[in-house]
Amino acid sequence: GARPTYDAGKFVKVCGLDEITVKAPEPSQPSDEEVEKKVRDFLLKNGCTDDVSDDSEIEDGDMVEVKHSTGDGSASWSFVMDETEDKYIPHDIKRSLLRKQKGYSTKTTLKDGTKVSLSVSKILRAEELTDDVASECSHGGYKTKEEFKKYIKSIVRAEKYEEKREAFSDALADEIIKKSTTVHFPVDVLKYDESIAILKTKADAEISKKSFKKYIKENLGFADEDAFYKSEDESIKTALSQEMILAAFAKEAGVLPDASEFAALETAKATDAGYASREEYLTDKGEGKIRKEILKEQIAEALLDTDDEKDESTEAETKVATENALEGGVERK
Q1: Distance of alpha carbon 63 from alpha carbon 92, whole angstroms
Q2: Residue 83: DSSP 8-state
Q3: Residue closest to 12 by CA, chosen among 225, 152, 182
Q4: Which letter, b or e, does each residue of 162-181 get, where b requires 16 or more Cβ atoms within 10 Å of its Cβ?
Q5: How far apart are CA 151 and CA 330, in angstroms?
Q6: Which CA distances in Å does 45 have to 73, 232, 238?
Q7: Percent with pLDDT over 90 in the chain
Q8: Is the CA virtual torsion 104, 110, 115, 121 positive or negative?
Q9: In this predicted model, what pLDDT tens digit does every residue of 213-233 receive, in sequence order?
Q10: Distance between CA atoms of 328 and 150, rounded to whole angstroms?
Q11: Element (H, E) at 77
């Protein structure tokens, strides 16, 4: 069934707006190094590259393709050689390939004990940015390297501001929660959240082909079911308390979404995360958790000075820029 509704104001004592000390972020100018890195990454991801000679060594900033094989088969890793943690290749292995040449091969062992053979199959280097390269890489959207770099700078500035916005949202929510108090809980919501969490854990146990008791011991580290249920109860109460506090604050601020607005925001998040439906997304992530995130965003947005956002680099232009950048095309505005 559906999650019961509740009036958060009946269950919490929420702090006032005048008690908030977290300061809203302001846009900041990106450094030349940040812009150059984004230019390089853009060129690499859009195929504006040179295939280096066989005797050239891998340098920071190169796009590298590494074939790796284990006893189960072979595949390829493709990554930019830099200090960024990569999603697929272990960072220590990635950095060990710096200054190696195309054709270099070695054997190593991953942290999980898997033995793997590696071979550098391709090294690509971003072309030097010229007017012609800028025009080619932007599909004619920008005619000079100066225009192109200005465009890239707008992306970096928007990304930096978005990072600050996220940090502001987190800090703001933490302060609201810290300065507010939960008096008691809506029993029906608490029981619903507990039942959903337990059902999900039992489903995970079935997927792992283990008994529930064995799963919570071996996979979750609980000595017995009593310890698991006690921990689950505490976790769910903490999560629900935080959600209710943010909901009460949002209500006081006049930004609490109604049921249809919550559904629309949840659907949008589900789509962005690649889920087939809102229901699947909420089941997987937890409805309370998603609502907390939505409330954080709504409150932060309400307290931000929107005039700071609507400059040349943080509104429509950079929305298009950020969505199109590194996706193979630029549309001139």
Answers
A1: 17
A2: S
A3: 182
A4: eeebeebbebbbeebbebbe
A5: 10
A6: 27, 44, 43
A7: 70
A8: negative
A9: 999 999 999 999 999 999 999
A10: 18
A11: strand 73-80
Phi/psi region, residue 133 (left: phi>0; alpha: psi -120 to 50; beta: rest), is: alpha
Q: How many residues does the chain have?
A: 333
d(C-alpha 311, C-alpha 322), whole Å: 15
| Cα–Cα distance for residue pair 122/78, rounded to 1 Å | 9
Residues 98 and 290 sit within 8 Å (Cβ to Cβ)? no
- Cα–Cα distance measured from residue 265 to residue 232, given in angstroms and rounded to the nearest whole number: 27
Residue pair 331/205 in contact (Cβ under 8 Å)? The answer is no
- From CA 248, how far away is CA 196, in angstroms rounded? 24
Residues of the chain with pLDDT > 70: what percent? 91
Which among 180, 172, 186, 178 is positioned nearest to 12, based on CA atoms? 180
Report the 3 state secondary structure along 227-282. HHHHHHHHHHHHHHHHHHHHHHHHHHHCCCCCHHHHHHHHHHHHHHCCCCCHHHHH
Q: Are 17 and 89 in contact (CB under 8 A)?
A: no
pLDDT at residue number 267: 96
Closest CA relative to residue 122, chosen from 75, 52, 68, 45: 52
Distance in angstroms (rounded) separating the CA atoms of residues 251 and 224: 41
What does the DSSP assignment read for 180-207?
Answer: -EE----HHHHHHHHHHHHHHHHHHHHH
Confidence of residue 182 (pLDDT cuts 50, 70, 90): very high
* pLDDT score, position 323: 43
Cβ-Cβ contacts under 8 Å for 138 (sequence gap 6 or more)? 148, 151, 329, 330, 332
H-only helix segments in the chain: 32-45, 91-96, 131-137, 145-178, 187-207, 212-218, 225-253, 259-272, 278-285, 287-303, 306-309, 316-324
| CA 82 – CA 284 distance, rounded (Å) | 34
Q: Is the pLDDT of residue 34 over 90?
A: yes
* Burial readout 243-258 (b: 16 or more C-beta within 10 A, e: otherwise): bbbbbbbbebeebbbe
